[in-house]
Amino acid sequence: MNAAAENPFGINSKNYPEFMGRCSEHIVRKGKDMADYFTESPEPDKIIYEVYEAESQANMRTALTVLKPGKVGTEYHMTKGHFHEDPEAGEVYFCLKGRGIILMQTRDGRTDEVWLEPGSVACIPPLWAHRTVNVGNYDFVMLAIFPTDSGHDYGTIEKEGFIKRVVEENGVPKVV
Ligand code: S6P
Ligand code: ZN
């Protein structure tokens, strides 16, 4: 017997708050949650980013990240970053708003990055850790789609960090 059909929906740079309203999970990451990630200490109660995640559909999860503009010291606001536990789980990021960089790296030290603006997409292959950085002056909003059973390994990045960081140098973002 077939399960009941879900309703299709479209998400764009204008209607994404509607999608946020339908999400079953809402995570808020503040400075105090990220004290070990930035080189300098963030203000504890400052919101760095929020994630809204919908119920899984068609073996895929859809999550919207709103990364606030700003810096901690010279380092731009960023997400924690993680590997997927499933070695076959890649991910696709669609930029809806703002300007950002997806930093990626493998366990054997390869690094890469994709710069995003509205309309751009980043394809993250399996086995690449990924972190999002907001290098613009406004919210960076992106939609992520990934397999339901990806699993998230935060421990490796929490312990070892990312090889590359994005800092402001002479008023512009630089990957160092
Ligand atoms: C999930 C996907 C995103 C991130 C979100 C926050 O696989 O990559 O939805 O969860 O951007 O980043 P993080 O590293 O704190 O999970
Ligand atoms: Zn991911």
Write a concise keyword list for the protein shown above.
single chain; 176 residues; mainly beta; Jelly Rolls; six-stranded antiparallel beta sheet; 15 strands; globular; binds D-sorbitol-6-phosphate; binds zinc ion
Instruction: State the helicity in percent bands.
Output: under 10%
Q: Radius of gyration over alpha carbons?
A: 16 Å
Going by CATH, the architecture would be Sandwich
How do the SSEs run, as a string of H and E? HEEEEEEEEEEEEEHEE
Which shape, going by the Cα principal axes?
A: globular
The end-to-end span amounts to 55 Å
Mean pLDDT: 96
Q: Give the bound compounds.
A: D-sorbitol-6-phosphate, zinc ion
Number of beta-strand segments: 15
Structural class, from secondary structure content?
mainly beta
Tell me the strand percentage band: 35-45%
Uncertain parts = none
CATH class: Mainly Beta
The total of helices stands at 2
CATH topology: the name is: Jelly Rolls
The total number of structural domains is 1
